[in-house]
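Homework help thread (please don't just give me the answer)

Our assignment gives two proteins as sequence + structure token strings and asks us to describe the second one. The first is just a warm-up. Here they are:
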Amino acid sequence: MKAFRLLLAACALSTALLSCSTTKALAPDGGSVYMTDTKKIRLLPPSCMDGSYEALQLFSGSFGSRQFASQTYLECTEERVFAMLINEFGIGIGTLSYQGESVTFESDYFPKDLQAAYIVADLQNVYYKVSELEKNYAAAGLTFLCEKSPDGIETRLIQDGGTVIEKITILPARKEISIQNVLRGYSYHLEELEE
């Protein structure tokens, strides 16, 4: 575990030193993202986190006809949300950081206009306290629902009226997570990897 953390720290440092594309993206109104074409939510501070989470994950997904896959080191705590994308050679190819004031995304491999605040919003929908998310979505005129099945699978839905905008499925202990944004036509799958 210690060697793994040292490798991740070295990758993060090399990514930071070699990266020339940095995006700090928070709107002047305090960091809002549009969940529909007309309704937006605030990004909540990391203090709304439901516990802490740290793991190496396989991150795969699709946007329209495009597909992608990468390993990701994800750390979610009450102080910050941090993710590092890692290529097949174990080299960091991008970092995402959010500490409540601004979203920072650094990478040479992704478009400069990537709106990383939307990734933070999706991570909040998975890792933040349900009560905080319910209030945040209600303030935007949207509904956030959470149901747990007897086998421990959690389903979170974001709805505008009766229309599902996003569906999140969380397996027990957060070992696997699926996020499907029906409105925008993208999906992610996060699967925890063994160290």
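The one we have to describe:
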Amino acid sequence: MNINAIGALFILFVILSLFGAAGTLLLFTVKSEKASDILMIVMALFAILIAFLSSSGQPDNYVLQRIIAWGIGLLSLGGLIFRFIFKKPQFIDKLLIALSVIVGLLYLFS
């Protein structure tokens, strides 16, 4: 067992978890609409990055697990569609992005 590889994965876990927690917290506390829009885009891209990491970490024949990983990541795009189609801030768009990040991190490291 290579301890260095486990240490690197732990560091990756801590960095992704802290970024996800801070971004999700800011997503619901920022009052500026422009800053909220930028943060929503950044967090949606982060959720898609998590989906990519989770999907690419699965073997090729685990198709269902890969589809689940991408489905969790695509929830964030649903949140962006709600935000930019309806042209006003709503709770559901932030909730979809936050769920995509949180569930994606849980799926990635489970």
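TA reply:
I won't write it for you, but here's a hint about the kind of observation we're looking for: The chain is about 85% helix and 0% strand.
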